[in-house]
């Protein structure tokens, strides 16, 4: 087939043609035409000569990737402005998610579970939570990355609601390549080291490509940066400190007493009320950037059995280990815990008790900070047969294949307190004649038990102290291991080709069948299952489902080579999916492509989508977490302080004018968003329903003939998800009850009815549920300009911008329920924009990247009546009602790379990310982070060197 080459076609061909393993662009003929082989591009199953598509596809070539300081595929994808805030960022040390440590992409900020990841057009495989760890793919093996920023359930099935990421690996590659990368922050920490090698060989009837990579990234602690060194940020270093300290404390006659730093716990006169200046700063030893090690290997190959038949295969093996550290465990005993027997008080018969009665106590085990190692081994393999045949003058391509992916994970938690031993260690004890603390009494020594003095401050060498006696540590602490597994299996068969001809061209078709199974299991340590680890609970879970699918795609040319209709074609696709647990669903896709002139392409799509709940969503069990909440009934920081209607609802619930929210250590909240006084339940829900979606796009691509090398694109998009599966925050549920007046929400939590915590939230079930809907819309703008080569070198400019009109969610389908708006709040930026400038002069190249993030809003934590930290004190919305809020300005980061090609086929690159050492604003809402800093921003100036050697 012969197609004339135009500026628009050439631009798209250069961007997309290498997406398939076969050569895509043949040599030009003598008549000025270009022969194009049949290729399959992301967003269509039809192998065709035309690479212009009705769907918006962003392509990042290997040449572009090598001009950046990227260490992994996840970094590459963050260069796509359609990608949202990082899910489970490495700054989220407090996250208990089982997928923590992986690297995921969240297109349109709709979550990684709604972004489908492919490797060479085949599903990558997912965790139990539906996440694909793109960091497991060695970046050295990546030829290009294509991102379809449009729903594609009709073509690829479930999960492709927000879009599709297709990682194309290197094939038909001759030679070898080795890379070394080392870098660190200007502060001297966070060192990154990456080493990779790639080798390929083509034969007369096939090819083989091998790649391996090893990456190590050192952690950075919160105390290493001024902007993350304090719980409530650098402007309020004394706020948010925790009263459960490493100095230990005891409650006697309602008074909390401690010897404080350096005190002597053997002297009762040293016990005094603890000064706030000695409170614990939990951020100092918490990882701001978790450590990461990754080893991966990838191989692919193909063999031409006959001219029309070949076998292809690939295999991936990856090991990942991430390490995060937290402050020591805040062990404390409440009256309720003592009464129930779950935690023992310090016995009146303990050698360390001066008061002659059982007493409540607390001690933060800062002597041995907690740590969690999340490791994951991924084993993936696929094998298939590919072929082609002709029926008359019509070509058909077919393939059958099998893909297997298994994730085997371990979550090893260190320095956890073993509750049975803690209870024994604070029981009866005595000091023997040698000055050694022993459990029991002189007449009845409890063998195997080691007494603990929780009132001994950190650094003390007194008997029974954690600092001075290794036996105490060995007795109180345990490490436990949770096992996590997930398996994906796919069998598929596809065929595409030309059905028959119309005056405007051939009607092309693709059809196929697929069988897929997903299964996953979570097996917590037996100590966890038995409730023997302080503050941790969990039960083993397992689940699976299978589905069978069939799809059909048609491409119908309507007009061609006419005035104002150089091309007009229609794409239609449909997919039927039959789940063994949900039944059947049918989803469709319609696309229109119109070229009024050769330089201009107008495109539009409409489709329906479907996402089944993941195994984790349905069968993942529940966990308990200590959430940060803002109680709307709090009369200082809650909505009741400024809204009479909310105040009336709170009063009716028994929370009158004097009600104040307490923090996790029992003190009155000094700001909004503090840790609750008890744990809440979250997790799976076997009653969940599937999500359904509708997507729309309309766009134009313009490559003017009179400006060679210039490509412009503008696309409008909209996505609506019904029955959206969400895990609402504790504050959201409280607001639904008291602010929005949704009666059903009030039954999802309870409050203490007596005691010192009377009125505080005592329990909450915030497990997953199907909300009403979630909807987002916006625009993508792309500009690429490759200037003609000049005497001073070659210049190239690319500018990509995403503008989000809105991202909203409604908790139910009741008309009176207000819609919650997310755009502009936290990490949901209204505008993200990346500008890349590149100059090449002979062997020397310089690249400059500017990354722009629009401003963010959050609820005020200070100056609630207006002031420097609350510039929107009168903010009001239907969802929040009156809510004093603050808006911070936009943030821009600049990156520089200088590279030089050496005579011996080597290239050395020196780079600086965040050249001007820009620091983002303090964000008290802690978006995508466990600190008062957005988890997706740079944490300093990062300098690196990269060397590449080609053989």
Textual characterization of the structure:
The structure is a single chain. The chain has 951 residues and is mostly beta strands. The protein contains 11 helices and 53 strands. The strands form 12 sheets. The protein has a 22-stranded antiparallel β-barrel. A 5-stranded mixed sheet has the order 4-7-8-5-6. Strands 15-14-13-20-19 form a 5-stranded antiparallel sheet, with no helix packed on it.
Q: What structural class do the secondary elements suggest?
A: mainly beta
- Structure summary, number of beta strands: 53
Mean pLDDT metric = 90
Q: Strand content of the residues, in percent? A: over 45%
Task: Report the end-to-end length measured between terminal Cα atoms.
Answer: 37 Å
What's the alpha carbon Rg, rounded to whole Å? 30 Å
Largest sheet features: 22 strands, antiparallel, barrel
The proportion of residues forming helix, as a percent range, comes to: under 10%
Which segments are poorly predicted (pLDDT under 50) over 5 or more consecutive residues?
1-36
Shape by Cα distribution: globular
Number of helices: 11
């Amino acid at each position: 087939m012969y197609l004339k080459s135009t500026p628009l076609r050439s631009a798209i061909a250069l961007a997309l043609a290498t997406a398939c393993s076969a050569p895509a662009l043949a040599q030009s003929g003598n008549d000025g035409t270009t022969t194009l082989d049949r290729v399959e591009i992301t967003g269509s199953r039809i192998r065709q000569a035309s690479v212009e598509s009705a769907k918006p596809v962003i392509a990042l070539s290997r040449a572009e990737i090598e001009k950046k300081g990227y260490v992994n595929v996840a970094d590459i994808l963050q260069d796509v402005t359609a990608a949202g805030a990082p899910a489970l960022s490495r700054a989220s040390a407090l996250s208990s998610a089982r997928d923590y440590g992986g690297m995921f992409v969240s297109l349109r900020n709709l979550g990684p579970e709604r972004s489908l990841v492919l490797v060479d057009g085949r599903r990558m495989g997912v965790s139990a939570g539906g996440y694909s760890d793109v960091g497991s793919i060695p970046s050295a093996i990546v030829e290009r990355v294509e991102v379809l920023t449009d729903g594609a359930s009709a073509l690829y099935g479930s999960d492709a609601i927000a879009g599709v990421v297709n990682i194309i690996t290197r094939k038909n590659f001759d030679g070898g390549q080795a890379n070394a990368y080392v870098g660190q922050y200007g502060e001297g920490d966070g060192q990154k080291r990456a080493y990779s090698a790639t080798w390929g060989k083509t034969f007369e009837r096939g090819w083989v490509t091998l790649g391996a990579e090893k990456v190590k990234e050192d952690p950075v602690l919160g105390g290493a940066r001024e902007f993350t060194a304090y719980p409530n940020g650098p402007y309020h270093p004394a706020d948010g400190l925790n009263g459960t300290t490493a100095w230990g404390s005891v409650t006697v006659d309602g008074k909390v007493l401690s010897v404080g730093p350096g005190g002597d716990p053997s002297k009762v006169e040293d016990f005094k009320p603890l000064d706030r200046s000695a409170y614990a700063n939990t951020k100092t030893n918490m990882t701001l950037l978790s450590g990461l090690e990754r080893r991966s290997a990838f191989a692919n190959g193909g063999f031409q059995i006959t001219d029309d038949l070949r076998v292809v295969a690939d295999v991936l093996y990856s090991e990942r280990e991430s390490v995060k550290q937290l402050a020591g465990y805040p062990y404390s005993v409440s009256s309720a815990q003592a009464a129930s027997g779950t935690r023992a008080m310090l016995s009146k018969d303990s050698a360390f008790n001066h008061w002659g009665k059982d007493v409540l106590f607390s001690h933060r085990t800062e002597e041995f900070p907690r740590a969690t190692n999340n490791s994951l081994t991924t084993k993936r393999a696929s094998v298939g047969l590919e072929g082609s045949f002709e029926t008359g003058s019509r070509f058909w391509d077919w393939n059958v294949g099998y893909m297997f992916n298994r994730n085997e994970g371990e979550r090893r938690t260190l320095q956890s307190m073993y509750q049975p031993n803690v209870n024994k260690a604070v029981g009866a004890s005595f000091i023997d004649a040698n000055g050694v603390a022993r459990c029991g009494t002189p007449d009845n020594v409890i063998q195997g038990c080691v007494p603990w003095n929780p009132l001994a401050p950190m650094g003390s060498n007194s008997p029974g102290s954690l600092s001075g006696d290794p036996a105490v540590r060995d007795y109180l602490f345990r490490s436990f291991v949770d096992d996590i597994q997930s398996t994906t299996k796919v069998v598929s068969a596809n065929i595409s080709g030309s059905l028959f001809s119309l005056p405007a061209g051939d009607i092309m078709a693709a059809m196929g069948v697929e069988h897929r199974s997903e299964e996953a299991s979570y097996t917590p340590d037996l100590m966890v299952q038995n409730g023997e680890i302080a503050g941790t609970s969990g039960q083993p879970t397992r689940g699976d489902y299978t589905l069978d699918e069939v799809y059909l795609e048609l491409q119908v040319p309507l007009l061609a080579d006419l005035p104002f209709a150089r091309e007009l074609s229609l794409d239609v696709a449909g997919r039927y999916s039959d789940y063994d647990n949900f039944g059947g669903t049918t989803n469709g896709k319609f696309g229109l492509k119109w070229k009024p002139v050769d330089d201009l392409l107008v495109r539009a799509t409409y489709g329906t989508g479907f996402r089944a709940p993941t195994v984790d969503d349905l069968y993942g069990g529940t966990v308990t977490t200590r959430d940060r909440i803002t109680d709307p009934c709090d009369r200082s920081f809650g909505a009741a302080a400024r809204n009479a209607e909310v105040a009336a609802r709170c009063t009716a619930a028994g929370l009158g004018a004097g009600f104040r929210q307490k923090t996790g250590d029992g003190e009155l909240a000094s700001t909004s968003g503090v840790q609750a006084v008890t744990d809440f339940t979250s997790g799976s829900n076997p009653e969940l329903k599937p999500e359904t979606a509708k997507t729309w796009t309309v766009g134009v691509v313009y490559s003017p003939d009179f400006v060679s090398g210039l490509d412009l694109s503008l696309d409008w998009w909209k996505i609506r998800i019904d029955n959206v599966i969400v895990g609402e925050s504790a504050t959201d549920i409280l607001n639904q009850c008291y602010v929005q007046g949704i009666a059903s929400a009030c039954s999802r939590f309870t409050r203490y009815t007596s005691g010192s915590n009377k009125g505080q939230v005592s329990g909450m079930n915030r497990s997953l549920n199907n909300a009403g809907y979630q909807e987002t819309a916006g625009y993508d703008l792309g500009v690429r300009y490759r200037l003609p080569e000049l005497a001073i070198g070659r210049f190239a400019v690319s500018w990509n911008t995403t503008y989000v009109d809105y991202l909203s969610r409604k908790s139910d389908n009741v008309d009176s329920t207000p819609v919650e708006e997310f755009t502009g709040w936290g990490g949901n930026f209204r505008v993200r924009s990346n500008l890349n400038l590149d100059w090449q002069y002979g062997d020397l190249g310089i690249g400059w990247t500017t990354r722009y993030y629009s401003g963010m809003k959050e609820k005020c934590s200070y100056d609630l009546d207006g002031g420097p930290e609350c510039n929107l004190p009168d903010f009001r919305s239907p969802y929040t009602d009156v809510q004093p809020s603050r808006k911070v300005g936009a943030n821009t980061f600049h990156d520089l790379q200088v590279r030089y090609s050496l005579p011996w086929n080597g290239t050395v690159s020196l780079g600086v990310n965040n050249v001007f050492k820009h620091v983002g604003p303090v964000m008290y809402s802690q978006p995508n982070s466990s600190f008062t800093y957005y988890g997706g921003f740079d944490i300093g100036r990062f300098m690196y060197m990269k060397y590449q050697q080609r053989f």
